[in-house]
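Service request form, structural biology core

Requester: graduate student, group of Dr. S.
Request type: structure prediction, single chain
Budget code: on file
Notes: please return the result as structure tokens.

Sequence provided:
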Amino acid sequence: MSTGGHVRKRGEGTWELKFDLGTDPLTGKRKTRYHNFKGTKPEA
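Core staff response, request fulfilled:
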């Protein structure tokens, strides 16, 4: 379950999507995933 995230411009027509997946119950650390996307910002 995703609890939030944001979109960041990386280059011409390239975006980085960052997803906050919450906290790992074993370590207490925040879990984050990244994904690169080519296209427009609304598509991302």
